[in-house]
Amino acid sequence: MTTSPKTAIVLGTGLGQLASEITESYEFSYRDIPNFPISTVEGHSGKLIFGKLGGKDIMAMQGRFHYYEGYDMKQVTFPVRVMHELGIKTLFVSNAAGGMNPSFKIGDLMIITDHINFFPEHPLHGKNFPTGPRFPDMHEAYDKALVNLADEIAAQKHIDVKHGTYVGVQGPTFETPSEYRMYHILGGDAVGMSTVPEVIVARHSGIKVFGISVITDLGGFDVPVRVSHEEVQQAANAAQPNMTEIFREIIKRS
Q1: pLDDT, tens digit (0-9, with 9 covering 90-100), for 180-213
Q2: Where are the domains of the chain?
Q3: What is the secondary structure of the chain as a DSSP string?
Q4: Taking the domain 7-253, which CATH number applies?
């Protein structure tokens, strides 16, 4: 079977079920791919899948790599470099995130319109890759045309979506109440431990990006809320059908 995907999807914590929607699929374990790191986080299967979604050839990462796992940024973003070499033009990213916007509730889908990078290491640190300029522009990290299309699809499908800025942090601790409040004051609507490095490298490589955060917990409000990884996975699982519907329709129509 031959495939020529132009679209790739990165499935975050608890969001791997979208893989079951991929038809005519075949997959590779990360362990069998030269130079690929191994995902060590529960809820990340560690498979690279090729097949069809929305009638289009795609590739999907069922599980990603995180800085907090001990990988450096070159390792975390290596799959995006591979995507570029395979001819990927559009990257869909998903993640589970803590909501800081008072209008958010658990289970909301937040279309990412911008991000704030709080990682201690930059993914473009070091010698410049020839896929892009030394100082890449990031004024439109998340493609506005795809955001508009997602809004149109969500309205047609009666799916409630939010918009917001994603704050990327190192982890692996969840945020303190004061940290949640600080990130919100600085302009963030949701916070998580992934996505930003991948998006930076994708944009450096000329790949368009669309992203969704599933709000799996809330923080920074008057009443502190305890959160566990298991609860995050459960909330992400519940929100998957709507996220999958949006991804599928965007791929089908674009």
Answers
A1: 999 999 999 999 999 999 999 999 999 999 999 9
A2: 7-253
A3: -----SEEEEE-TT-GGGGGG-EEEEEEEGGGSTT-----STT---EEEEEEETTEEEEEEES---GGGT--HHHHTHHHHHHHHTT--EEEEEEEEEE-STT--TT-EEEEEEEEE--SS-TT-SSPPTTS-SS---TTSS-HHHHHHHHHHHHHTT--EEEEEEEE---SSPPPHHHHHHHHHTT-SEEESSSHHHHHHHHHTT-EEEEEEEEEEE-SSSS-----HHHHHHHHHHHHHHHHHHHHHHHHH-
A4: 3.40.50.1580
